[in-house]
Every structure is written in structure tokens, then in C-alpha cells.
Amino acid sequence: MLVNPSRGVTNDSFIFELPWEYTQVPDLQLRAVINPYGVPLEPTLGDNVLTAGPFAFQPTPRLNVIFVEFPYRLNNTDYATQGTYQNVNWIRRVYPLGASIGVSGWNFGLQYAVWQINDAGLAARINRQFPECEAYVVRDRNGMITTDNRELCASDYVNGIMRDLRSRRSVPADTFLYGEIPDSGIAGQFPRGQAGGSNVSSGPDSSAWNGFYAGHELGHSLGLGHPATANGSCGLAGSDPQPPHGNGRIGPGDSSIVGFDSRDGTFGGARAVLPDGSYFDIMAYCQPQWISDVNYERIYNRLTTASSSLAAETAQSGDWLSVYGSLDSSGDQAAVSLIRRLSGELLIPARVAGDYSLRLFDAGDAQLAEYAFTPEEPNDAGRASFGVIVPFVAGAQRLAIVRLSSAEEVYARAISANPPTIGAVALQGAPDPTATQITLAWDAADVDGDALSYDVLFSRDGGSSFVPLLSGLRTPGATINVADVGGGSRIFRVLADDGVHSAESDSDPIELAAQAPRPQILAPIDGTRLEWGQLVSLRGEAADAQDGAVADNGLSWSNQDGALGSGPQLAVSDLPVGLNVITLTATNSAGLASSTSISITVGDDLSAPGPILVADPAAISWNTEAGSSDLLSAALNISNGGGGIFKWTAASDSAWLSVSTTAGSDAQTIMVSADPSGQPANSSTRAKAPSRRRSAARRRLLPRMLGKPHRPATL
């Protein structure tokens, strides 16, 4: 125990995780006892007990997200998504969401699915070589570029694909779609993310982004903007008055509000208290990022109101024309990412008349129809997205987007007279139930001579619903990895597209080999150390190509001595002393099983711990404008996480970095200061302030609860 514990130091606190079932009882009361056995002796034990409660828990909001992965091939190199589960992990930790427990258990928190679409047209947009990317460039009368937003070409395209999927596949209005675009790392080819309306957004995907890019763009879809207080910081131009904290930080900077990262260790790192003077809100641009108190509550309120920007969408049958794209900041030029004519039942978004219209013309350029619409609010680059689905008129041979205030056509495109034809979608070669890849082929033609592209979808339920798989193919055939679609009976649908008109055809059912599930242990982290009798919560899940996720009764836990229990969540307090190998085994509906393991060490050392140096925060960072000479500073808390004699020293190895105190023999808060003078613009500089433990000690963890302290409900 410490005489003067610091709120800003994680190791100064006892952190307990309640068993999940405790939150399901009414009027929960908690009682904490220090030194319950009276060793060592104390003059009085009356001040060693603290009671709290009763507590009444309420379900937290639910956030439904489909993460759509968009791998592609560029310059003979395959680029695949890397950060899907980092995105899941980060949003679970940062957003106001309780941990969802299993498939059939508690259905709040983050509920997510993963789709993968290999799109053959994405690489040219990443590389900014696609002709439509030129629409993101504004030139003066001499042909010189004045504005270049081609970095948005890829995300605009991806957003259009996902908005089209929402309408065609009846994705519910309260389900958000986030497109993950692999960041190729090619200089100058960064695929900048953006929200695209209709609860759709996308951004660059890489383990380097660590999840916060997805949290930022989903925040836009939830109605949050860039904070005005962060204007000019790290290139941001914001207009949202919230949060009100200076420089877009998570709090006022006086430590009255701090962040708490309850990491489960899946992607490294430990729990940490995050100072409000060092962390920026997710809607700002500077890093490192967390969430402010204000935006935490705004997201909570947004999710609990059960409202949706798509509430007016209705499913309607007909002959439809959908157009998706964006307008530049002047409103004089449109970039269109997707046009498609479709027949059947679609979710039709409400259309509000505004200053733009979609017009259809016949072969003689006589106007056949006009549909006025209002674009979305402009993003931070000044571009305004739009997505309209309107009735198609027979005989239409040209479409135009018109700015009504000037009667100017900001986009125009010819429409061919005839749709393509497609058929004979079939497996090539003899059926092989053990194959890891299959090849599909089909027949397609277009009497107008238009170049065709193809999308491939598949159904797990006999054709009642379809999931996207491939898009933008240029040849009538595809090789498909069985692991991407799972085993069992599958029907494949191929859609042929001439740029406007489309046609589709289905295969006969094809039997594929079942695939094993993919389990992962979410908590605790590998290498956790406990003391005997200490409760630990085991939590895991398993993705499955057949079922989407393994059912709760398909998850079982064991250690080297045998079974521990079953289900996605298990609290145990009787692990034996020594090394425990904890194994999670997942068994899917096809009877296939696979396992994953971690190690937990249980000790019985009751001796007093030696000195353990604790420096919090573990890292300090600043962002400042080029040319600034204002001194930057941050507090560094130094404390003893153990016992015994404690001495420390601190020093800097860089002239621009200094510490206020260089040595001490007790817990202390020192100031770390940085002088930005002379640092070049757009640069990153690091220096270390090494600390040294002077007295010999052996490390021992204090007996406290370990595991992820997410609550399944909020007070």
C-alpha cells in the first residue's frame, strides 16, 4: 500500500474485474478488505474495509459494423488488409460499449462481421492512374493544378461499392460499413479515408494505424466533426465546437479528466492512465489519440437514441438507376465512382430536393426525367458525397448531373442501348470436396461492344442472401479460395456490368470442403502472472467460415490438468501453483476443431516485494507547428511499484530534451520539457530519458485482479 497513491499511475491502484454474472443481479454491493488475515499486525483493522453500492447496471449501447476488407494487386505485389482485428480491439476499448459475450449471449457492445472483396479496379485508383481520378484535380486556365485531392479517389470508389451493397443486399440502416484499404506504402499514394454518407466510411488499413483511423471515420458516420479547438494542429481545419478542450485534447489539461486504456493484451501493451495533456481526441489529427469525455458521451447518446440517418430507407421493387460520387469544393465538378442499373427490390434512400439534379436524356438528347437531390455535408477536404437511386426510364441514352443554380452539367455519361447477357456460371473440372481452391467460369456478351466487368457473390443459405467476394473482374472466370467462403453447399452469383446496365446469373449448388474455425484468446494476455487464489477471467471467440462465428457451446477451456469449463467467458480462481497452459478449443457446426493457447504463471510468494521502478506515462509525445519556439512540457510520475529502499536517476541524451529533477529516493512527479526550436517541418524526433533502479530487487506482482476491465453494463 502507498501513503499517497497517484491517480495518474496505474500501479498505484488496485484493479479488479467483476465476474460477468455479477452485473446481472439487482442492487449489487461490493466490499473490499485490505489485510484480511491481519498480517502484519496493525493497531486497528477498522479502517481496512470499504463498502460500495448498491449498483444497478444497465445494458450498454450496441454498435453493428461490417468491416469490408479490400485487398488488391499493384505492380505485381499483393496487398492484404492487416488491421481488421486491431480496429475491432481499439473500438472495443475506446467507444462506450460493454464487451459482448458470445454469439447467443449478451447482444450489446460491438457486433461485427468481416467481408472481403477483391476488387480488380481498386489498384489503379490507389495508384491514381484511373481516368476518373482526374476529376479530383482542379486546374487554372493555364492548366496548372490548384487543388489535388486524388488521394480520395480510392476511398470514394470503395464507399460507392459499399453504398451499392447496402441497397442491393438490404444491409440494415443501423449497421455501419467500414472499408479497409491496404496502405501500399508507395510514396505519395496514401489512400486517404473519408466518410461517404449512408453510415458508410473507409480508410487506409495497416497495423501502423492501430485502429484509431477506423474509430475516427466511424465517428464521422456517428455525427462527430473535427474539433474547432484543434484548428491548425497537424494540418486539421475543424468546425465542430466539441470537445471544447484546447488543441483538441481529451481533457482540459489539468488532470481532472484522464483516459484509461484497459488493454487486453491481444496486440501488446499494458493498461495505462492516459494524461489529458498528452492525448488528443479521436476526431483530431494529432497523435497519440484516445477519446475525450465529451465525445464519449456524444457517441453513447447517439447509439442509445436508436436513430439513424437512414431511417427513411424503404425496400421497393422496380427498375432502378444508382449513381454514387462526390462534388468538389466549388461544386463545379463531380467525380462519379459507380453507376449501375438494377432491377428488383432495393433499399431506396430518401432523396431531398436541392441544388443538384440527375437528368436522363434519350438518343436525341431530349430530357426524359429529372431527379433533384441534396449532397451530403462536405468533408474536411471540401468534397460533398452523394448517392441517389432513382427510377430508370426506358430509352435513356445519356445521364447528366446538373448544378441547378448555374444550369451547368458537372458530369455527363453516355448510356448504351442494351444490357449485357450472362449465363452458364459453373465449376470448372470435376467436383473435389477436398480442394482448397475452385475455378468458376461463365459466358457473357454485350451487343453494343461495351467492355464488361464482373462481380462474384456467394450464398450460404441456398440463395436467400448473398455475400460479396470479388468485384471489378475483367475476364469471365475466377479462382476462389475455399477458406474465404467456407464449406458446405454454396451458390455463386455473377453480375456482369457494362458501366451502367447489368445482368446476373447463379450457379447450381456446389459442395465445398468444410473449414476449421479460427479461435483467439482475448484475455488475459500470454505470460500473465497471478498469485494463488486470484480470480482471472478467460475470454475468447472464434471466427468460422461456415457459421460466421462459432456458437457459445462450441468453445471450451482447459489447462494441463483437464477441462476448466465452456463458453466465451469463464472466471476461475483455483488454477494450481506453477505454469498453466490455458487452451481454448473451438468446434464448429461441421465438427471441425482447432485450438490456441496462452501461458499463465500462478505463484505462492507471500514475501514483501522489492523496489519496482514505475514511470508513467510510458511514452510522452508532442505535436507543434513548424517554427514554434514555445517550450513544451509534460508530467512524468515516478513511483515504487514494490517495497524496500527506492532510489532513481533520470537523464536526457538530447540537448532539446530536459528533466526538472535528475535523482530521488521516493515517489515524485518531475517535468519533462522539450524545445522545438530548430526542428524541421514535418519531422519526427525521438529522445529517451533513461531511468535506473539503484537497489537490487526481485519483481513480484501485487495480488490484484488481472484481465480486461470492460464492463458489460454501465452505471
How many β-strands, per DSSP? 49
Helix amount, in percent? under 10%
Shape: globular
Largest sheet: 6 strands, mixed
How far apart the termini lie comes to 28 Å
How many whole angstroms does the radius of gyration measure? 29 Å
Strand pairing plus helix content: what structural class? mainly beta
Write the layout of secondary structure elements.
Layout: E1 28-33, E2 49-55, E3 58-59, E4 62-69, E5 72-74, E6 77-79, H1 84-94, E7 109-116, E8 118-119, H2 122-126, E9 137-139, E10 145-148, H3 153-168, E11 175-182, E12 194-195, E13 200-205, H4 212-221, E14 259-261, E15 272-274, E16 280-281, E17 289-290, H5 293-304, E18 314-327, E19 334-348, E20 356-361, E21 367-373, E22 384-391, E23 398-403, E24 408-414, E25 421-427, E26 437-445, E27 453-459, E28 467-473, E29 477-481, H6 482-485, E30 488-497, E31 502-506, E32 510-512, E33 518-523, E34 528-531, E35 536-544, E36 548-549, E37 555-559, E38 562-566, E39 569-572, E40 578-587, E41 593-603, E42 613-616, E43 632-640, E44 648-650, E45 657-659, E46 663-664, E47 668-674, E48 691-693, E49 713-714
Parallel strand pairs: 4-7, 4-11, 8-28, 11-13, 16-17, 34-41
Antiparallel strand pairs: 1-2, 3-49, 5-6, 9-10, 12-13, 14-15, 18-19, 18-22, 20-21, 20-23, 23-24, 25-26, 26-29, 27-28, 27-30, 30-31, 30-32, 33-35, 35-36, 35-39, 37-38, 37-40, 40-41, 42-43, 43-47, 44-46, 44-48, 45-47
Helix pairs in contact: 1-4
